[in-house]
Amino acid sequence: MSTPIYNLAFDFGASSGRMILSKYQDGKIELKELHRFPNEPVRVGNVFYWDTFRLLHEMKKGLKKAAATKLPIASLAIDTWGVDYGLIDKDGNLIGNPVNYRDDRTIGVIDQADKIVPLKDIYASTGIQFMNFNTLFQFMADKQMRPEIYNSADKYLMMPDLFNYFLTGKMYNEYTNASTGQLLDAKKRDYDTELMKALGLRTDLCCEMIRPGTVVGGLLKEVEEETGLTGVKVIAVGSHDTASAVAATPFEDENAAFLSCGTWSLLGLEMDEPVLTEDSYKYNYTNEGGVEGKIRLLKNINGLWIMQNLRRNWCEFEEEVSFPDIIREARAAANKSFVIDPNDARFTAPYNMMKEVIAYCEEKGQGTPKGLGEIAMAIYNGLTQEYKSTIKNLEIISGKTISCINMVGGGIQDQLLCELTAKATGKKVVTGPVEGSVLGNVIMQLKTLGAVSSLEEGRRIVKASFDQDVYEA
């Protein structure tokens, strides 16, 4: 029996964060959740912020729990959502508070950018799906609406970079997360400074670009003293959570698509080079950076955020329900034909999701969904119809016939969603692992430490360590 290797993976989602302890031994990985905490954005006035220092506090609580295990932890790494950032002044202080991507300050900014640099030209360089909250448009909004903060900044750090800075004192921009923001030249895989200058944006805010698998450093002395955790390497992995999820996906074959299913649904193909064509621009597909030089050709689809908020609102205004309750009610719904467009702006951050779903169906002439089950079916149908359309267009753009869909992430625990995805797309669906982002995070740590030789070996280890289920079309 080989000596076990222990790693910590911080994985942040839009509603919660976790610190997971990984044990790698004899070709298998075991995971144990040591600390879970809410990630609850806060509205101040009309602005939607991340509660950044509360999240840092929770990270330190997790590190204290890790220290208490007395295990020889080799390294830790962080993955989070994309596009959002913090601004650091010349003295190294966070100024302002990172704004949540669901804030509405960027509405209309895409049209402003188009008047300066045609969107087709922006896409030809960046290859990124146009979404209001991309870092490019957040920078433009900050310049207009928070000029004192924007002009006083010395550097910008994407959210995982920011948390690593708090832990290590080192500032950098990790490639996979930076790639989500529409600031990079997709082919050169570095900042498109000419584009930034053309749009009147500061290029001096950018830090050194590093790749997944870089050892950032060790914990600051004060962090070690506060938490009791010492001698741990901090590693930059695929710090965008989808980059890590795809890294851990045990693809059936080279023509298999991935569907990372959680708050967002990220559906696409792993490619060696970006696809910057008329069709990819027409269908608004994104080319985000992956680990080991890969490109994630995908579509961002508003995902289980809608169902999460339906549950929250139903608990607030009707009665307490669980996700299994919602699934049961959906299966029993009398009318299963209701359908929404999950990408409609009204579902981005409404005060009451169930009212918005009902209103959408009424406005589209579908009638009124009655009860929790029919409302839920409108969401299920909306998501899976969007998956169907995305797969169809993906085949056109890539020139591939997609053989199956590998689904990973927390959403695969919803068997109804998996069944409906197979039925709607006509593709076999292979699910697992649930902890995709965590496992991709861990694989890159192990590779950096020399315990795993390649991404392919890491995926074989994942497949050997965790069960998969199959849903036939």
Secondary structure topology:
Blueprint: E1 5-12, E2 16-25, E3 28-38, E4 42-44, E5 47-49, H1 52-68, E6 73-79, E7 85-88, E8 94-95, H2 109-116, H3 119-126, H4 135-145, H5 147-152, E9 155-158, H6 159-168, E10 173-174, H7 175-178, E11 184-185, E12 190-191, H8 193-198, E13 209-210, E14 214-218, H9 221-227, E15 233-236, H10 241-247, E16 257-261, E17 264-271, H11 278-282, E18 286-289, E19 295-302, H12 305-317, H13 323-331, H14 353-363, H15 371-398, E20 404-408, H16 415-425, E21 428-431, H17 436-448, H18 455-465, E22 469-471
Parallel strand pairs: 1-6, 6-15, 10-13, 16-20, 20-21
Antiparallel strand pairs: 1-2, 2-3, 4-5, 7-8, 7-9, 11-12, 14-15, 16-17, 17-19, 18-19, 21-22
Description of the structure:
This protein has 473 residues and is α+β, with helices and mostly antiparallel strands. It folds into two domains: 5-236, 2-Layer Sandwich (Nucleotidyltransferase, domain 5); 251-431, 2-Layer Sandwich (Nucleotidyltransferase, domain 5), CATH 3.30.420.40. The chain has helices at 52-68, 109-116, 119-126, 135-145, 147-152, 159-168, 175-178, 193-198, 221-227, 241-247, 278-282, 305-317, 323-331, 353-363, 371-398, 415-425, 436-448, 455-465, and strands at 5-12, 16-25, 28-38, 42-44, 47-49, 73-79, 85-88, 94-95, 155-158, 173-174, 184-185, 190-191, 209-210, 214-218, 233-236, 257-261, 264-271, 286-289, 295-302, 404-408, 428-431, 469-471. The strands form six sheets. It has a seven-stranded mixed sheet with strand order 18-19-17-16-20-21-22, sandwiched between helices. A six-stranded mixed sheet has the order 3-2-1-6-15-14, with helices on both faces. A hairpin with a 5-residue loop joins strand 7 (85-88) and strand 8 (94-95). Helix 13 packs across helix 15 (371-398) and helix 15 packs across helix 16. The protein is globular.
